[in-house]
Amino acid sequence: MQWTAFFTYILITCNTPGPNVVLAMNTARIHGLRKTLPLIAGMISGLLLLMTFCALFNLLLARLLPAFLPVLRAGGTVYILWLACKIAFPKRRSGDNAEPGDAPLFRHGFVLQFLNPKVILLGLTTLSTFILPWTTSKAWLFGAGAFLTLACSNGVILWSLLGAAQKRLMTRQGRFWDFLMGGLLAWCAFSVSGLKELIL
Predict the structure, then answer these.
(1) Interval 47-76: pLDDT, tens
(2) Longest CA span, the chain
(3) I want to staple 14 with a disulfide (CB 3.0 to 4.6 A). Which of 49, 96, 155, 191 is the partner?
(4) Residues 138-171: tens digit of each pLDDT
C-alpha cells in the first residue's frame, strides 16, 4: 500500500474547491454556520452512502464507468450550473439589504453527492487505485469508504467555517461574493462536463 501517495491524494482532493465545499462555504457565508448544518448533514449522509456503494460495486462500476460517465457528467453539469445560478443570483425577500431566501436543506446536500462527479470519481479511483491492488478485503474497502467520507466531511466543515467567518467580516461585499462563488461553481461544472477536453 502506497500510504504517502494515498494520504496526499485524499488531502488534496477533499480540501480543494468543488461543488460540496463551494456550496457549503457560500451557505455559511449567507446564512451562518448553524443554518448550514442541515446541508452539511445531508452531504455527509450522501457521502457515506455513496462511498458504501463505491466499496460494494467498485469493480463493476469501474467497468461500466466509460459508458456511464457522459450521463453522469451531463447530469452533474446541469445540477452544478443550477446551484451556480442560485448562488450568483440569490432570491432576496425584499429590499437590497434584506436577508436572502432559505438555506439549502438536508436533501439538497444529500442529492448533490449522487450528481457530483468529483465525489463519485474520488470514491472509484481511490478504491480501485490504492485499495484493490493491495487487498480485496471487504473490511478494508468499507473502512476506506468510511475514511473517504470523513476526509470529505472535514473539507466541507472547514470551508463552512471559512464561509461563516466571511459572513462576519465581509458583509458589505455580498454581491461580489455571490458572483465569485457562483463563478467557482460554474467553473466546477465546466471542469466536470468534459467540454474542457474537447476545447483544449
Answers:
(1) 999 999 888 877 675 566 567 667 766 776
(2) 59
(3) 155
(4) 888 889 889 999 999 998 999 899 888 877 766 5
Write out the H or E segment, with its range, that includes residue 31: helix 19-31
Which residue blocks in the chain are alpha helix, DSSP H? 3-15, 19-31, 33-88, 106-114, 117-126, 138-169, 174-193, 195-199
Q: Other CB atoms closer than 10 Å to residue 84's CB: what's the count?
A: 23
Percent helix / strand / coil, the chain, rounded to 5 = 85, 0, 15
Give yes or no for a contact between 166 and 38, defined as CB atoms under 8 angstroms apart.
Answer: no
pLDDT at 43: 94
For 59, the grid coordinates are 469493480
Residue listed under C-alpha cell 453527492:
113
Query: CA-to-CA distance for 199 and 195, rounded, in angstroms?
Result: 6
- Element (DSSP H or E) covering residue 131: none
Q: How big is the CA angle at 65 (ends 64 and 70), to the nearest 5 degrees?
A: 120
- Give the span between the Cα atoms of 176 and 190, in whole angstroms: 21
Backbone angles phi and psi of 8, in degrees to 5: -65, -45
Domain extents in the chain: 3-7+22-199
